[in-house]
Amino acid sequence: MLYPNLMYPYWLPSPFLTNRSARGIRRIDVNGIYELSTNAVQLADASVDYGINPCCYHALPCESIVLLKVHADAPAGGEAFPVTIVVPNNGQTTLATGGSSSGTSKIPVIDSNNNPVTGNDVTGTTERLAYINKRTGVIRFLEFKAGTASASSGGDTPAVASVKSK
What we know:
By secondary structure, the protein is mainly beta. It has helices spanning 54-59, 149-152, 158-165; strands at residues 34-43, 48-52, 63-70, 83-88, 104-110, 126-133, 138-141.
């Protein structure tokens, strides 16, 4: 007859096999992409600021891919302003945009071509895959290209027009 090891019972999970990073944040699949939701929106002087839960932001690893769920439109008058995410300062982040006395910083959201995402690009409930690097202060929409005035005007650039005419 076999007896269980009393020092390490086989029915308990191994402490070495558990994933201890980012506890409390929901994932889309097992050990996969994190799910992060916005909880507020505010029109600032020159930006549309979306807030996220500071506990969830601190629980993320330094570099991660998240499914960012934006639950609100940009406020009226903020359609042309760039979108930023307000995150808590943790002492490790080296952000180009200054922090405030409340211990938060604004990280601008950029698209896959390093163009700023504006309020027009975020409408209704938007779900976007985003790359987050907490050390450098980057939030990048991966599969998204921001609509710009030059791209939406419909006119050809001079280089494209000269190629079409030849």
